[in-house]
Amino acid sequence: MRFSVKPFILSLLVLLVLFPFAYLGLLSLAGDWRFPDVWPAYIGLRNWYAVLSAETSLWQSFLLSVLISVSVATAATFSGFFISRLVYYHPKQHLLTLLSYFPYILAPVVFAACLSFFFLKLGLFGKSGGVVVAQFMVAFPYALIFFGSFWGSKTQQLEKLVATLGGNLWHTFQRVLLPMARGMLLVCFFQTFLISWFEYGLTSIIGVGKVQTLTIKVFLFIKEANFYYGALSCVLLILPPVALLYINKRYVFNKLV
Amino acid sequence: MRTKSPHIGILFFLAIGVLPFAAAFVYALLYSFGAVGVLNTSYTTAFWAAVFRSGEFFKSLGYSAAIAAVSVAVSVGLALWLVLSYRRDFEKKALSFVLYLPLAIPGVVAAFFTFQLLAQSGFFARITYALGGIDKARQFPDLVNDPWAVGILLTFISLVTPFFVLLFMNVYKNERLGELKTLAVSLGATPRQVRWRVSIPILLTKTRTLIVLYFIFILGAYEVPLILGQQSPQMLSVLIIREMRQFDLAKIPEGYAVAVLYTFIVSGAAVLLFYRKKKTADAF
Amino acid sequence: MFLEVKQIRKSFGQEQVVTDLTFSLERHKTLSILGQSGCGKTTMLKMLGGLVTPDGGDIRLDGASISHKKPEQRNIIYLYQEDLLFPHLNVFENIAFGLRLKKHPAKEVRQKVETMVESLELQGQQSKMPHQLSGGQRQRVSFGRAIINNPALLLLDEPFGSLDAGTRQRMQQLFKKIAGAFSITSLFVTHDLKEAILMGDEIAFMKSGVLKVYKSKQAFIEDPETGVQSEIGFWKDLK
């Protein structure tokens, strides 16, 4: 009989994937875990109780992150949907899409640093609103490119069909385009939500430490060497995307070009 | 049908999709020549000269490019091997969910986790200690903030590999690779030939654009090298932000000069990528 | 005349696609137009439907010019070659689409759609989604969706082009029946000689953007350019 490595490799793979989740979960429950102990001296919910207390304001950070990400995702998805129609039907379609690639491909943190002067002048520096606007600038090109595939010749024909059946532009959107794109709108919403949810560099520049989203909190805890709270914020950061994955994998996996 | 509304829409597109990028670029350009900013020295090329003289930019560019290249190459290789060997197992329901799980982990968390594992007082050091391999934390090899960027590389590889596994699985299905493989076998190809002449070329050509895109993303990555990187050389984004936030005001325009250079390189890559994609798209 | 088309022309860049198109059609009649692909027939239909703007000329429907009306105001329905159904709506809702746009009362919509479903021989398929239908069924839904709106003019662009021979024949018969029952005025474009003769009350031939309408079917058959003669010759030679 031939010896097969397959079960070992597959088990190793599963372990590798699950390990970070288990480890971060354990670290968020741990206390007094000093070198060289392999196992923490304390395991319990005391860090989690602290989250609910006002002291660390992690709870507020979580809510703030949700609020910012939902705003960014809503704005980016809808503006992306409507504007990509104009862009992809435009005679200069290729030039316009190329232009939208630039902000998408540039490191958001550098983009933000070069823009910070304008945010300062507009009074958006260090404000949640400013962070929403800045993250929108990154999420919008994504949404725009995302919907590009929707506006093909098939959709154009359907639009003309509605016109010849007596429908105006409002009917076209309300009865055909929006219902047809429902799945895509949902996927785009969650993906732009995650772009915002995971964003650190740009938020730290525009938010100047005053807008404390969860990613900012993780960094603050790392700087303070408070690894238990750091792990706890990580768990909070990971939970929503895991839940989304459970509902529908397409919400998280993006293979956009 | 021909009303003004499309024009208003395109204007809106230019205002939110193009103007910020243009404004950021022009501002950085002006700043790097001393035309705007705190120093306000009026036009000078001194900062650009300083950037080229110090060579820090080129070191950082080379360092970032090397990290991006190694990370992408290892990830793609690993993903190819996994998909071609275990694709059928990955399609089973339980395993397929596990495969998607890594996508829930952002860069910040991955970097934090790597730090917890690999630092000199980290989890692996503790295990080595328990097994009697070391007596002091100091003896454990420094794998974070190290000159070989081991921590950074491991983090990027573990972030990017799952993505490419899923991508290749996807392409495998869409391009009907299974049928093409059967066809190749019926034409007399050996399993080795099928792998090297059919499967791998198809998977790589279909994902070429995304592979380059991931190289560019890692080139500009910020959080991971910020947590796991060393003082010098630094990856590009970290270098740019550090220079812009210096107390030495003369350094700030140099930061903007580096930002301009970086933007230039990345935009050039975007143009190339885009036209190649268009060309292949037209061909099909 | 019910439909009058006067000197319509259209060019894309250098290429003159439709040249001085002039013809007319009586109410409740079908004009079939024979032409090979690329002869400008699709562009011609799209200009009538308002989906393409002509470079010049005039289109009059029931005495009034419609050249400057938007497609949704013309009451002319253009039917695509492919059976273009709304993928998110079932058979019933696809057929009901135009009536819903015009906000007809629900009861009336139900009644009309059910009658239509019956004359299309689609009973029991109402709640199916487009991807669950066969090619012929899809084309019938597409027909019903157009005809139920009681269009002044129906434009059919190779409607049976993608169907197999048997289905095609059944569809031709069904269309004749329905066109009669609903008093449809229509233009029927096809590249199939037999279909052109079969479907039209009147018949025309289009080549390189020029349309020639025949006084009678006999005139059409006798013109060597239409290809009828060479077809007859082929079958004769076989004997």
Describe this structure in words.
- The radius of gyration of chain A is 23 Å and the shape is globular.
- Chain A starts with 5 loop residues before the first helix and ends in a 10-residue tail after the last helix.
- Chain A has two domains: 1-44, no CATH class; 56-251, MetI-like fold, CATH 1.10.3720.
- Helices cover 73% and strands 2% of the residues of chain A.
- Chain A contains twelve helices and two strands.
- Chain A is mainly alpha-helical.
- In chain A, helix 1 packs across helix 12 (227-247).
- Chain B is mainly α.
- Chain B has helices at residues 5-32, 46-54, 56-90, 93-100, 107-118, 123-130, 150-174, 177-186, 191-206, 208-219, 223-228, 236-244, 251-283.
- The radius of gyration of chain B is 24 Å and the shape is globular.
- Chain B folds into two domains: 17-54 and 246-284, no CATH class; 72-235, MetI-like (MetI-like fold, Orthogonal Bundle), CATH 1.10.3720.10.
- Helix content of chain B is 74%, strand content 0%.
- Chain C has nine helices and ten strands.
- Chain C has helices at residues 41-49, 71-74, 91-101, 106-119, 135-147, 165-181, 193-199, 217-222, 228-238; strands spanning 3-12, 15-25, 30-34, 56-61, 64-65, 76-79, 153-157, 186-190, 202-207, 210-213.
- In chain C, strand 1 and strand 2 form a beta hairpin.
- The longest helix of chain C is centred in the C-terminal third of the chain and has 17 residues, at 165-181.
- Chain C is globular and about 50 Å long.
- The N and C termini of chain C lie far apart (45 Å).
- The mean pLDDT of chain C is 89.
- Classes of the chains: A mainly alpha (257), B mainly alpha (284), C alpha/beta (239).
